[in-house]
Amino acid sequence: METKLFQYFENSLSEQERAQVEAWIDSSQENRKTAQSLYLLCYASDSLRVMESVDSKAALRKVLSRDAHSRRRRLWNRISHIAAMLFIPVASVALWHLSTREEIEEPIEQAVQYVEMRTLSGMVSCVTLPDSSKVWLNSNSYLKYPVRFEEERCVELVGEGYFDVTKDPERKFLVKTEAMVVEVLGTEFNVDAHDRSGRDIRTTLVEGSINLSFNGNDNREHLVSVRPGQMVSLDPATRDWRIQRVDTSSTGSWKEGRIIFDKTPFREALRMIENRFNVEFVVKNTAYYEHNLTGMFTDQRLDIILEHLRRSSNVRFRTKRAQDASNLNGNQIIEVY
């Protein structure tokens, strides 16, 4: 079976053979552990070949070819599929996927290299940026940053990230999202900018100070100074925004694998679960919005959390039928009725 497993990870089996291997993996915990060990061996081997093949000088002389990008994309897709099946958090490094950008009318030698990070559903990863700042990425999130910071430190975020920024009075730190830019010199804050319909973008300051810039519903640019314990919410569609005081004691608890409810409004509790497991709740019974939830979950599976809520709060959940089980973003849909 070891030979079949290597062929499976190399994507060289027929559909029937792949199904047989997957059935064998699911048949016992021992088989799964064997598959995980061999997969990590294949992953390390692939990663080594990719790293050894990177010529940094050549990358500065020309843009990566489409063929090379296609090969990396196929490798990433294969690793994501297998890792999801085996529950292995390998996406935290994202193979240090490098992309190059050539500025118009600028010498190729000045092209900028970027690192792109993507986390799989149900996993959390941490990355150290070139200035020693740390970023934790929640489930199904994306971060892009340059290999080396120059005059300013700028990163792009889709999803949820917790930032611990190294102070540097000479260079401001910028976090760009779909509709908001966060500017900071050194602080800790959480940004929730998942690209989902009907969801607002939230920035919560834990300590330090930050400035937010965005276009409001009056079509004017707003610059908002945020203090510790404050959260700013912005609706990307209507551009309505508000600032409010919040309890930050559990802000970012997701980066330790915890979900903490402390008299948390039902709507906010569902949002926290959505971010952690890349699901979407459709609430049919709006009476639940009058509830507050209290409790803590550490590294618990989604089904266990939902079962606990069902038993303790009499909240009923059901997963939609297979043909309607996900929305356009690929999120699993769970009805609350």
Structure description:
The protein is an alpha+beta fold. The chain has 7 helices and 19 strands. The longest helix has 25 residues, at 29-53. Among the domains are: 119-252, Jelly Rolls (Sandwich), CATH 2.60.120.1440; 257-336, Phage tail protein beta-alpha-beta fold, CATH 3.55.50. Strands 1, 2, 3, 4, 5, 6, 7, 8, 9, 10, 11, 12, 13 and 14 form a 14-stranded mixed beta sheet that branches. Strands 16-19-18 form a 3-stranded mixed beta sheet.
Calculate Rg over CA atoms: 22 Å
**Overall average pLDDT:** 80
What class, by secondary structure content? alpha+beta
Main pleated-sheet profile:
14 strands, mixed
CATH class of the domain at 119-252: Mainly Beta
> What CATH architecture of the domain at 119-252 would you give?
Sandwich
**What series of H and E elements makes up the topology?**
HHHHHEEEEEEEEEEEEEEEHEEHEE
Number of helices: 7
Would you identify the regions where 5 or more consecutive residues have pLDDT less than 50?
Answer: 46-68, 87-109
Strand content: 25-35%
CATH topology of the domain at 119-252: Jelly Rolls
Please bin the fraction of helical residues: 25-40%
Number of strands: 19
Shape: globular
Q: N- to C-terminal separation?
A: 45 Å
Question: What are the defining features of this structure?
Answer:
7 helices; Jelly Rolls; alpha+beta; 19 strands; 14-stranded mixed sheet; globular; 337 residues
Concise synopsis of the structure shown:
By secondary structure, this protein is an alpha+beta fold. The chain contains 7 helices and 19 strands. 28% of the residues lie in helices and 32% in strands.
